[in-house]
Amino acid sequence: MTTVVEIKGFDEFAKYAENIPANDPLVLFYFSGSKLPNGSSWCPDCVEAEPIIKTFLTEVKKDVKFVYVDVGDREYWKDRACPFRTDSRTKLMVIPTLIKWKGVQRLEGSQCCNRELLQMLFEDDD
């Protein structure tokens, strides 16, 4: 079963990450640009990846906590001092990025649209 959590901004992300119970199921963080009034992200790569990931989540056969993280608007994201870029837990270089928490595995950019890579990320146990 997939549980979806939505987070906005770095402070909410940091607070959530600090309070993840050790016995939580697989936790995946998906970092995406904020939504425009039309409901789509300002980030074209995020717009492309999101439906593929959402469809994939409906097919997952194990307990997964999927945390959608809104990294903010384009100007905030593009700032080199953006905490999502500089924080040691995230070190984001591009969005979208999907990170397996407490592991080293991640998918970045167009990799988030690759079903085989998604399968490996969800099924590989460290």
UniProtKB/TrEMBL annotation:
Q: Name one GO molecular function term.
A: protein-disulfide reductase [NAD(P)H] activity
Q: Do you know which Pfam families this protein is assigned to?
A: TXD17-like_Trx (PF06110)
Residue span, Thioredoxin domain: 7-124
Q: Which InterPro entries match?
A: Thioredoxin-like_sf, TXNDC17-like, TXNDC17_dom
CC per GO annotation = cytosol
Q: Which PANTHER family match?
A: 42-9-9 PROTEIN-RELATED (PTHR12452), THIOREDOXIN DOMAIN-CONTAINING PROTEIN 17 (PTHR12452:SF0)
Instruction: Report the family membership.
Output: Belongs to the thioredoxin family.
| Record protein name field | Thioredoxin domain-containing protein 17
Q: Which organism is it from?
A: Bicyclus anynana (Squinting bush brown butterfly)
Top-down, what is the taxonomic lineage of the species of origin?
A: Eukaryota, Metazoa, Ecdysozoa, Arthropoda, Hexapoda
